[in-house]
Specification:
The protein is α/β, with parallel strands linked by helices. Helix content is 41%, strand content 12%. It has a single domain, classed as Carbonic anhydrase (Beta-carbonic Anhydrase, Chain A, 3-Layer(aba) Sandwich), CATH 3.40.1050. It is built from ten helices and seven strands. It binds zinc ion. Zinc ion binds at residues 119, 121, 143-144, 172, 175-177.
């Protein structure tokens, strides 16, 4: 999608939006979101002045894919390079074409062009693998990239307040959380909570990669299933939601 995607263009629905189901509450208690409510809560951020705006890609998904192609090329080239110094030089080359983020602009606010729901795994750094800098990606991360209530609420903020036009739910190769969900070893009570939604979506016969991809697709589907804010933004053509798989070995992100 192109065109208008700045923060002030993506407003919460004019009507009152009930997102009680997204919060897992049964009927009586719910959160009512509307533009004036978010302003009253001090959530809305002012658009940056024209002379201080950060990168403004016309198409957010294309920008992500181009950034990842640059990263993957440097990643595979570095893998075939002899010394650690040479490998680091190759990887640093991806920053040469990167947007120059203005620190004054970042001190004034943020207008990330994409939001990434992904794993907490230390090898899965969205800024690194999409060749982005500070201010460009809104990141929601926990092991297993599950769409928990807090994750969905965070993405509602990115979309409704910051005007982010693209959300990507991304799994990755060798995900430890999905491995734990598949395995039968006992976990701590809190880790059981973490893997419960992953287990619920497992299909018999799936290998690890298929389970990881299915988990990313499921988390993406949960965003509109459980959030009226995100569902309305998609219906209005102001938000695109995709799922993806990051292969650590090749450095490539594949859209699912
Ligand atoms: Zn993981």
């Amino acid at each position: 999608m192109g065109g208008s995607w700045w923060a002030h263009d993506v407003m919460l629905p004019r009507r009152q939006v009930l997102v009680g189901s997204a919060l897992g509450m049964a009927g009586a208690a719910f959160l009512m979101l509307r533009p004036e409510a978010s302003q009253a809560a001090g959530m809305r951020e002012k658009p940056l002045p024209d002379n201080l705006q950060v990168c403004t890609p016309k198409d957010a998904l294309t920008r992500l894919q181009e950034g990842n192609a640059r990263f993957a090329k440097a990643w595979t080239t570095a893998s075939a390079t002899g010394t650690p110094e040479q490998r680091m030089h190759q990887l640093n080359s991806i920053w040469e074409q990167n947007c120059q983020i203005d620190p004054i602009a970042l001190a004034m606010g943020q207008q990330p062009f994409a939001a990434i729901l992904c794993c907490a795994d230390s090898r899965v750094d969205p800024g690194w693998l999409f060749a982005c800098g500070s201010g460009e990606l809104f990141q929601v991360r926990s092991a297993g990239n599950t769409a928990f209530d807090e994750a969905i609420a965070s993405l509602e903020y990115a979309v409704a307040v910051l005007g982010t036009p693209l959300v990507v739910s991304m799994g990755h190769s060798g995900c430890g959380a999905v491995k734990a969900a598949i395995a039968t070893e006992p976990l701590t009570p809190l880790l059981e909570v973490l893997v419960k939604p992953i287990r619920a979506n497992l299909r018999s016969g799936d290998d690890l990669t298929q389970a990881i991809e299915g988990n990313a697709r499921y988390a993406a589907a949960q965003l509109t299933a459980r959030s009226a804010v995100l569902m309305d933004a998609v219906a209005a053509g102001k938000l695109t939601i995709r799922s993806a798989f990051f292969d650590i070995g090749s450095g490539k992100v594949s859209m699912l």
